[in-house]
Amino acid sequence: MNPYGAPPPPDAATQREENRTLPEKIREIEIRARKVVNSLFSGEYHSVFKGMGLMYAESRPYQPGDDVRAMDWKVTARTGQPFIKVFHEERELTLMLMVDMSGSGHFGSQRKFKSETAAELCAALAFSAIRNNDKVGLIAFTHQVELFIAPRKGRSHALRLIREILYFKPEGKGTNIRAALEFMSRVISKKSIAFLVSDLRDEGYDKAMAAMGKKHDLIAVRVFDKREESLPDVGYLAVEDAETGERMVIDTSDPALRESFAQATARTNKRKSKDLAAAGVDEVAVDAGGSYVEPLVKFFKLRERRRRFG
Length: 310
What we know:
Layout: H1 12-19, H2 22-39, H3 44-48, E1 53-61, H4 73-79, E2 83-90, E3 94-100, H5 114-131, E4 135-141, E5 145-152, H6 155-167, H7 177-187, E6 193-198, H8 206-215, E7 217-224, E8 236-240, E9 247-251, H9 255-278, E10 282-287, H10 293-309
Parallel strand pairs: 3-4, 3-6, 6-7, 7-10
Antiparallel strand pairs: 1-2, 4-5, 8-9
């Protein structure tokens, strides 16, 4: 929701933000993302997203405590000494970032726009993938897929993705999650990890979500702003839909209106969460005004427990 009229003059912090060069902004996000990865995601990403299988590496002499099921009987018979097979994880995973670039991302009632929080979150995921020698790619979409960057490895590639997420200028303002999901299903054939980073302000993507969830490991990250969940009591407020351009004036001093708005939003969020669960898709809710780190760490720990105990 955006008030009518000219924006207020920028404060000193905002002015400094605007004066920074593009490389400076990207470098700052890289530093913050790497700090998060090194301190909090160091082993979480690797343990949650396992490789596609195990690959034989070598045979070595048996040591007390080794699993006898890994015995290499051929080498044992040839040498007369017990040997076991050693296997390494066959990693080579692909992480796809599916990022909603619609107009509703350019809203923030607190410290950051939803789009800025989404960019920092994606940076942390990208560097987690790169650190584990995985590939990472990008699908940026609005009412249509606007940008596709094929998955690759390396720091320079990760920085390119961050730059595009931050500064890509899409043609559209609407949202079509179904189109993004169907596009990925066409262009990425190998089973991959996919993070759908969006405020999920769209309808009609349930079937595509379910189909995608069967083919890939899909996680939906819902980035929201608290002001979209409840209205403040500030009297008459002029608002504008960032995607459709529709404008209206509402009386936020009306308690019935505020209550109705909060209840409708809660019902919508509950329905979407239920639909995601039915499709076998995990959901991570991230408040754009807070930290994305805690919700992601909580998600990683939940997935790890589920993997261990079923």
